[in-house]
Amino acid sequence: MTAKMRAMVMDKPGTPLVMRDGPLPDVARGEILVAVSACGVCRTDLHVVDGELPHPKLPIVPGHEIVGRVAAIGPDVGGLATGERVGVPWLGATCGVCAYCRSGAENLCDAPVFTGYTRDGGYATHAVADARYCFPLGESGDDAEIAPWLCAGLIGWRSYRMAGEGRSLGLYGFGAAAHILAQVAHWQGRRIYAFTRKGDTAAQDFARSLGAVWAGGSDEMPPEPLDAAIIFAPVGALVPAALKVVKKGGRVVCGGIHMSDIPSFPYSLLWEERHVMSVANLTREDAREFLAIAPEAGVACEVTRYPLERANEALSDLRDGRLQGAAVLVP
Questions:
Q1: What distance in Å separates the CA atoms of residue 225 and residue 250, rounded to the nearest whole number?
Q2: Which of 98, 116, 117, 243 is the most exposed place for a label (fewest CB within 10 A)?
Q3: Which CATH superfamily is domain 4-148+300-330 in?
Q4: What's the rounded Cα separation, in Å, for the pair 55 and 53?
Q5: Cβ atoms of 151 and 39 closer than 8 Å
Q6: H or E stretch covering 13
Q7: Mean pLDDT across the stretch 167-171?
Q8: Is the confidence at residue 164, as pLDDT, over 50?
Q9: Model pTM?
Q10: Is 144 buried (19+), middle (13-18) or exposed (0-12) by CB count in 10 A?
Q11: Domain ranges for the chain
Q12: What is the pLDDT of residue 2?
């Protein structure tokens, strides 16, 4: 009898995902088949499902925070064994030949492949991945609690590095990425200031429980000027808000793949050598760095588990701000 898989599939942006059964996919040269044990639900998935990111593969299985076991190995795959636990991130493959890839900036590749966007992802019992872009995870830790590391953690880490070495750091939008990053920054002795939706006292209490020295609404001013701020909420109006709170020479890093339009603001907010920059995707080196440091820092993800068939509910809870930490699908 042919082995089967199940997947939550998007046929068209703006429509609910539907459960489909089908045969297990074949693995090509350089690929592995992963039996998914957990897949995080990321805000980028919302941007795909809601049609805010253009030209997805259709139909598409979303999901790019995948933890699972190697179930099959294609030709020319080295360094991985059947049954080994691996992580599959957003960056699914790069061309390796464009100027960006050749210079070490594979996150800016001209012809990338993205898991859960341009190739099927992890809202499924199985997923095929390019073995070169997967990461051994060892055996420590719970699968569902590690899944958010594969994007919220990795993109958060890249944003964190781009924010510089300053000791005071603001985090706008205290969701999956910020709650991971706050733990790393606190472990490194930095002062974290958490900015949430106005009146979201639960998120503010959560931030303080993870080491934030201050937590308040995104319309508030912190008690001191900050060295840098990272914006994880996809709200363009937070850019001038963050510029107001960083000191001279401070950096504002936009950590998402999509953001609403940034409103006009006076040049005085940018003057005195303040910087605004964005983070695009990740590199495999980012992943190796973060996956090494997260256990050292004792990063523990707060997760809400959903069965695979409740993927639409998980997306809705994330969209409407009903989650603390991260949502994770468990097939």
A1: 9
A2: 98
A3: Medium-chain alcohol dehydrogenases, catalytic domain (3.90.180.10)
A4: 7
A5: no
A6: none
A7: 98
A8: yes
A9: 0.94
A10: buried
A11: 4-148+300-330, 154-278
A12: 59
